[in-house]
Amino acid sequence: MLPTLPIDFEKIFQDAPVGMCVSQNRVIQVCNEYLSTMFACLSEDLIGQSFQVLYPSAGEFEHTGERIVTAMNALGYYSDERIMKRANNELFWCRVTGRGLLRGDPHAAGIWTFVDLSPTRLLSTKFTPREREISALLVEGKTSKLIARQLDLSPRTVEMHRSKLMRKLNASNSSELVQKLLDAPRAKD
């Protein structure tokens, strides 16, 4: 029988193979090195900063914050795949999952993980902030009607943005668009 080693939770947090952080009121309180490396900065550059520095725009930060509250109040956790921004302004697809630590107030305190999806999902087209939001919801399998309701838009407006995305990615239909968003080819080194 192997000896039982003491569990060092700080070391586990710091050495986790995903980006991790703890937040209070959407401000990063502590993060691991993997997270700072993913966002092309140092840990000390993130600690004390609003999550807004990780988003391509202030609007995306606000809209996602609203979705987080709704999901956490209903499910107790939040998870999505979205476009985020590194410190060097490079945009990339990221899977974000979090859990609020204070029931009923999801933003009060939370634990978050971040997985960089860029090795398999390259973002090579310039999208507007609204197109980025709609793209993220499309890859979740949401319909135009659901996206419109979630973003407080008309379904016609969502369809207009979907059409623009289809032209940008040269997709002939909605399922091809989603496939191209999910399986964008990796750039050759």
Overview of this protein structure:
- Helix content is 41%, strand content 19%.
- The protein has 189 residues and is of the alpha+beta class.
- The protein has two domains: 18-119, PAS domain (Beta-Lactamase, 2-Layer Sandwich), CATH 3.30.450.20; 124-189, Arc Repressor Mutant, subunit A (Orthogonal Bundle).
- Strands 2-1-5-4-3 form a five-stranded antiparallel β-sheet.
- A hairpin with a 2-residue loop joins β1 and β2 (27-31).
- α5 packs across α7.
- The chain is globular, with a radius of gyration of 18 Å.
Rounded Rg: 18 Å
CATH architecture of the largest domain, by name, is: 2-Layer Sandwich
CATH class of the largest domain: Alpha Beta
Globular, elongated, flat, extended or rod-shaped: what is the shape?
Answer: globular
Write the layout of secondary structure elements.
Layout: H1 9-15, E1 19-24, E2 27-31, H2 33-38, H3 43-46, H4 58-75, E3 78-85, E4 91-100, E5 110-116, H5 129-139, H6 144-151, H7 155-168, H8 174-182
Helix pairs in contact: 5-7, 6-7
Quick take:
The chain has about 190 residues and is α+β, with helices and mostly antiparallel strands. Helix content is about 40%, strand content about 20%. Helix 5 packs across helix 7 and helix 6 packs across helix 7.
